[in-house]
Amino acid sequence: MDAVTTLTLSEFKREGRKITALTAYDAPFARIMDRAGVDVILVGDSVGMTVLGRADTLSVTLDEMIHHARSVVSAVERALVVVDMPFMSFQVSVEKAVENAGRLIKETGAKAVKLEGDKGVEKTVRAIVEAGIPVMGHVGLRPQSIHKFGGFKVQGRESGSAKRIELDAKATENGGGFAVVIEAVPVSLAKQITESLNIPTIGIGAGMHCDGQILVMHDVLGISDNVRPRFAKRYASVADIAQKAFREYIEEVKGGKFPTMQHSYSKLKLIKKSRASTGI
Ligand code: KIV
């Protein structure tokens, strides 16, 4: 089982093989999706909304990203782990961006960083890449710019904004980035960008012509019950399964059905047997 690298993703694009990506924020789920065979695991700043209960991603800090990314990296053997640079960790100056990208790599063991940006991001991407850190771009709907966009809205529907998004994606490639996420744009625009770039595109709400796809884990598993975007396909209803299990547990404790002797300690002999089978 070879570990996925940025070169693997370029090969996939050349060979027309789709790239699969998911977000993860902790070790148990990262392990499960790595074993399932996903190519890229993104520790997204969406952690602010999916895990930390916030309304958007803007308040997520570098230290919070490091905390979650460390946990993800500890569980992954094959997938390429990419960590998001949170809001204001790369916008202030190129120097600050390189320093913060360095912290994300040194303190987590992740292999690459992702940053949201328009065409002005090219010099920042170049400086981080020159420091030896692979960079993934993010264009289209950029959640760190929702106040500028007036909310979580589809981007690039008019020809002017479509052209701008194409230039934004090109800037990541020109700066030496290895891939670019395209979020919430019309299918035709994502297709055009994908065909015009040498680096792979990873779509989310960008249709079927991108070189790969990414979804937020909580949307895929049906964990969160907040707003579900049109593009987020649900493959399971984990919230329902979890709620059923929690209800059953509550009923059993209240009804005196749990714990029984099966889950309790008694004589030495029993303890030994339980240790052999469960490790405690
Ligand atoms: O933060 C995130 O989860 C992302 C993905 C939606 C691409 O940026």
Largest sheet: 8 strands, parallel, barrel
Cofactors and ligands: 3-methyl-2-oxobutanoic acid
Helical residue percent?
Answer: 40-55%
Shape, per Cα inertia axes: globular
Strand order of the largest sheet: 1-2-3-4-5-6-7-8
Tell me the structural class: alpha/beta
- The count of strands amounts to 8
Assembly type: single chain
Which percent band covers the strand fraction?
5-15%
Measured between the Cα atoms of the first and last residue, the distance is 32 Å
Radius of gyration: 21 Å
If you had to describe this structure to a student in words, what would you say it looks like?
The chain has 280 residues and is α/β, with parallel strands linked by helices. Helices cover 45% and strands 14% of the residues. It has an 8-stranded parallel beta barrel with strand order 1-2-3-4-5-6-7-8, surrounded by 7 helices. Helix 5 crosses helix 6 (122-130) and helix 8 packs parallel to helix 9. The two termini are 32 Å apart. Bound molecules: 3-methyl-2-oxobutanoic acid. 3-methyl-2-oxobutanoic acid (KIV) is lined by residues 23, 42, 44-46, 84, 138, 181, 204, 214, 216. 3-methyl-2-oxobutanoic acid is lined by residues 23, 42, 44-46, 84, 138, 181, 204, 214, 216.
